[in-house]
Amino acid sequence: MKTKIFKIVLPALALTLAVTASLAFTPNGNNMADAIVVTSGWYQNPDELSCAVASPINCDCTSSYNPVCTIIVGFNVHQVYQRINSISPCNVLLYEGLD
Predict the structure, then answer these.
(1) With CB atoms 3.0 to 4.6 Å apart as the test, which of 17, 69, 83, 99 could cross-link to 94 if both were Cys?
(2) Which UniProt keywords apply (predicted)?
(3) ω into residue 46 within 30 of 0, thus cis?
(4) pLDDT tens, 6-31?
(5) Under 8 Å CB-to-CB from 90, ≥6 apart: which residues?
């Protein structure tokens, strides 16, 4: 009887303890998606509904204290935007990525 308890219950308790401990030490504000660097962006050509691709870039959405992300096309400097999907306007302003 004791061996059945040790073989079945003890590993189940150890697994439960491990899962509980891993959840206890997870940071509350773990937003890894916000810190991902965007690798493709768009510039408004001429407006936010007519977007032209500006790729590759080193910009992100979360660093609003950094300078605005820009590219040079020809002799013109354009701000770089993110586009949520293929039918949305490119109007989410991007900022210089942190190195």
Answers:
(1) 69
(2) Signal
(3) yes
(4) 677 777 777 776 667 666 665 555 44
(5) 41, 42, 43, 44, 48, 51, 81, 82, 83
